């Protein structure tokens, strides 16, 4: 279970957030599969108690990454990004 407290409001008009989490499975730079949580209405303190599973062949696991985004749902315009993390194998290129 992941908790996040005190999200900053990204809604410029009403100061009310409708957060949800979107998780993308990526193979290299290509997005393969997506999962989403339900939208939490009118809260800056959501608790996401979700689990996601993806089927990935063992020999391809090091080439995959997860892009986890917390989004603010917007009924009228585009959904806004609140925060993001990329979970991936560190590169061995020496950079």
In words, what does this structure look like?
The protein has strands spanning 2-3, 19-27, 30-36, 47-48, 64-72, 80-88. The chain contains no helices and 6 strands. It has a domain at 24-65 and 82-94. Strand 5 and strand 6 (80-88) form a beta hairpin. Helix content is 0%, strand content 40%. The termini are far apart. The strands form 2 sheets. Strands 3-2-5-6 form a 4-stranded antiparallel β-sheet, with no helix packed on it. Strands 1-4 form a two-stranded antiparallel sheet. InterPro entries: C2_dom, C2_domain_sf. Residues 1-95 form the C2 domain.
Give, in spatial order, the strands making up the sheet with the most strands: 3-2-5-6
**Shape designation:** elongated
**Rounded Rg:** 15 Å
Proportion in β-strands: 35-45%
Count of individual beta strands: 6
SSE string, helices as H and strands as E: EEEEEE
Largest sheet: 4 strands, antiparallel
* Distance, first to last CA: 34 Å
Instruction: Let me know the average pLDDT.
Output: 83
**Helix proportion range:** under 10%
Low-confidence stretches: none
Structural class: mainly beta
What is the helix tally? Answer: 0
Summary of the model, kept short:
The protein has 95 residues and is mainly β. Helix content is 0%, strand content 40%.
Q: Which helices and strands occur, and which strands form pairs?
A:
Blueprint lengths: L1 E2 L15 E9 L2 E7 L10 E2 L15 E9 L7 E9 L7
Antiparallel strand pairs: 1-4, 2-3, 2-5, 5-6
